Amino acid sequence: LASRLRAEGGLGRYVVGIDFSGNPTVSGFVQFAEAFAAARAAGLHTVVHAAEVANDADTDAIIGFRPDRLGHALHLSAAHMAALEAAPIPIELCPTSNMKTLRLDSLAAHPTLRRWIEGGYPVSISTDDFGVFSTTASQRAQTSHRIPAAAELPASRLHAAGLRRARPR
Length: 169
Hints:
A_deaminase_dom
């Protein structure tokens, strides 16, 4: 649908990509990989929510596909971490939703946030789902200084990183 809308022009010219998300316990990326490959071939950007739950086979398929960006990337094996560090795929970190879905007491308990930020990995601070998690990009920008490992960084650096990775083709 996204490829068709883009090809038709009109308002479709504003369709720049597709995103794979949803309940990771119900279905995995493999079922949609062919559609994502077709979208990429049509010039669309791809974002895939990855490793929201521990599922090595699904995470293998997602990293192998190499989307333009990953969402979350929380439950990663040592092999997945090494693969991403060797050939980075920018990650949309979603601290508010991760706090809620992982039932964290604080962001200091986040499984990957500190490592990605302190290691200089390409990340952006994102919001995930406004309707479910009641946070906006503006709120996230205002509170990014509360994120451990990001407190010493200018907030503009984290948010500019996200903008650089959002450019349409």
